Amino acid sequence: MDISSDTYRTLAKPSKQVLYKDKKSKFFGYAFPINKEDEVKPIIESLRNKHSSANHVCYAWQLGVVDPSYRANDDGEPNNSAGMPIYGQIQSYEVTQVLIAVARVFGGTKLGVGGLISAYKATAQMALDAAVIVKKTLQQRFRLSFAYPEMDIVMRTIKQRQLNLVSQKMELDCEMIISVRLKDSEEVYGYFKGVQGVKIEEVD
User: Fold this and answer.
1) CA-to-CA distance for 100 and 73, rounded, in angstroms?
2) Torsion angle, alpha carbons of 133, 135, 141, 146, to 10
3) What are the tens digits of pLDDT across the range 176-190?
4) Domain assignment of residue 73, given as a range
5) In this structure, what are the phi and psi dihedrals at residue 161, rounded to the nearest 5 degrees?
């Protein structure tokens, strides 16, 4: 990714439930913003509990911006008939840091693979249409370590450059965590690197 295009699209909050019907089968769709893979399993389990009569809870997620990772799960539906159509909508809407899940309650009539693909795709699309999509900026965090006499120049730089101060520890040895827009990170790093008495390092 070009560091100058350090923005990405994601969801402001979970979408409201949507419902798609086909031959008496019901497809309940949801879209969630997520930050890490560990969040997926609890959300899926909660949907299984909510839709106890659902035969399948299929989903897809994508995480990351520069080098995104993803997973698609058919949850017992025919191979690639559910998870990948859902993931296709994540790609179509160009969103990331997102989980889309669809709970299917079987209506008694088989839809066939083509019907399933259409239904899961349509439900994922409805869930994303119901969501609020926002643009966010990639950030890089730095830890600044310095003695108290350097406080003035550090604070003045943070204010002048409008950097985001995440946390601070003010003692004889001071420590601050700042958050910098990714495209500005090299410049800010280079600046503080040149300030005598200030140590700067990247943090996750």
Assistant:
1) 11
2) -120
3) 999 998 888 899 999
4) 7-136
5) -90, 0
Which tokens go with 181?
Answer: 């827009």
In a domain, 58, yes or no: yes
Backbone angles phi, psi at 29, to 5 degrees: -110, 145
Identify the H or E element spanning 127: helix 112-130
**Confidence grade of residue 18 (pLDDT, cut at 50, 70, 90):** very high
CA distances from 140 to 10, 54, 158 (A): 18, 42, 15
21's tokens: 């019907």
Q: Give this prediction's pTM.
A: 0.76
Asked if residue 196 and residue 112 are part of one domain, the reply reads: no
- 78 and 96 share a domain? yes
Tokens found for residue 74: 């058919």
Cβ atoms within 10 Å, residue 55: 13
Token pair in block for residue 57:
């809870």
Q: Is the pLDDT confidence value at 128 over 50?
A: yes
Count of C-beta atoms within a 10 Å radius of residue 187: 10
Whether the pLDDT of residue 1 is over 50: the answer is no
With cut-offs at 50, 70 and 90, classify the pLDDT of residue 138.
Answer: confident
